[in-house]
Write a structure and sequence with these properties.
With 213 residues, the chain is α+β, with helices and mostly antiparallel strands. It has a domain of 118 residues. Helices cover 30% and strands 17% of the residues. It has a three-stranded mixed beta sheet with strand order 2-1-4. It has a three-stranded antiparallel beta sheet with strand order 3-8-9, with no helix packed on it. Strand 6 and strand 7 form a beta hairpin. The C terminus is likely disordered.
Amino acid sequence: MKMIHSLLARMPVPVKLGIPLASALLAAACSSAAASSPSSAPASSAPAAGSSASASTTGTVITTHAGSAGAFLTDGSGRAVYLWAKDGMNMSACSGACAAAWPPVPATGKLTATGGAKASDLGTITRSDGTKQATYDGHPLYYFVGDSAAGQTNGQGSDNFGAKWWLVAPSGAELTGTDTAAAAAAPAPAPATSSAPSSSSSSSSSNAGGGWS
C-alpha cells in the first residue's frame, strides 16, 4: 500500500485528475450500451402479427336458378344440384362409383340459402366415409360430372345406378320436367360420316339447322 501511495504522490496532477475522469466516462459508456441493447432485441424477435388474418372460410351456398321447367336449386356458383330417388330421408345410398359420377355436395362452413332457397330446409348428414353432405328438405344433394358449366342440367331425368336423378325445386320437391333451355344450349352432336361423298353432303345439309325436335 505504501508503494501505491508513493507512486500516486509522484504522478503529475493532470494524470491524477484524469484517472477518475476516465473511469467515469467508461462507466457511463457501459451503462449507455446496456440501456440501448434490450430495446433493440424485441424488434428482431417479435412475431409477425396478423399472418392468418387474411384467411377466410367460405361456407356452402344454395340458391336458385330459373329454368324452362321451373326454378331449381344450384350452388353459389350456379352449378345445378340434384336429388336421387333411391335415397331415403336424410340418408344417402350413393357411394363408390355412384359418388364418382354424382359427387355429393359438401357441407362446408355455414350453410347459406339465397334466392328462392329456404334456410329452414338446409341440413347436413354424415356420409359413411365421415364427410359432411348438404341436404335440402331431407334430400341429400349431388352434382353431376356431366355438367361442366353453370346453368347446365345434363343430369336431369338420368336413370343412372337404378333410379332417377332430378333437379330440386325451391319447395324441396323433385322437378321432373325437361329443362329445354339447357338442352338448347348444349352442343349438337356431330353428323355421322359416310364413305359416299354424295350422302355425306346430304347429311351435312340436313343437320345445318341444328334442330332439337
